Protein: Metal ABC transporter permease
Amino acid sequence: MNYLVLAALEIGLLGLLSGVAGTLIVLRRRSFFAVALSHATFPGGVLFAIAGWNLLLGQALFALLLVALMTVLSRVPGQGRQVASGVVLSFGFALGTLLSSLNPGLGVPVEALLVGSPLSVTTSDVAATAAVLIAATIAMLLWGRRILFHTFDAVGFRAAGFRAWPVELVVTGVVAAAVVVAMPAVGAILGVAILIGPAAAARLVAPRLSWVPPIAAVLGVGSGFVGLWVSRQFGVAAGGAIGCTVTAVFLLAFLASSLAATARRARNFATVEAASEEEGAIA
Structure:
């Protein structure tokens, strides 16, 4: 299959995945967790590159290890999830840098692990992303209501007799899987850009919560394709072009949201002024 077709398929699937995993990350405020996970799985890719094994498998196994480590650290008294994520991010990235420096003849360029290469994705990468998208969609169909309940009313969720750990397990699994499959295309540094950016933009412009996932998916696919086109047209790095496009989409959404809020305030003020004038005329 043509490398451009594979790149377009991969970016399109990741854009759709933003509507599922990205929405979870944004609504549950797991952005730093996702960033930490994407950076910390860097050594898994380096280790498997040294051994000549599948990089995606190495990153997935290291993601499982680091999620377990973050869970343990977050339970230490006086610490929390953010502290644990920061520790794991620093450790993983430092270990990956150390391993890559000890193996200068690494078969895979370190830059490819850090910023990805959409034009170098394989059929197995696309298949893995498609499998994660299907699994994440099924998980949301089965657990979506409970996840929303727990997200916005954790106390009421527990009072209703539900346990929090299955929800946490599903959310963590979906986020971790999405981050891992995004890395071949956009790397450890830009890996979460195409997941979080469209969902964050959708959260700003969506008229109601139920609209966030579809809007995020559309923005994710659209910004990914635009970034890929810019890369092809001007000969720039595809991962960087996609990351910048996603950022531009978020800034436009922020601007549109701010202008809409200003317009609403102006209309409300005009309504209040008109009501006051009518009351004055009656008096």
Remarks:
- Residues 3-282 form a domain with the ABC transporter involved in vitamin B12 uptake, BtuC fold (CATH 1.10.3470.10).
- The two ends are 78 Å apart (CA to CA).
- The chain has one domain: 3-282.
- The CA atoms of residues 21 and 175 lie 6 Å apart.
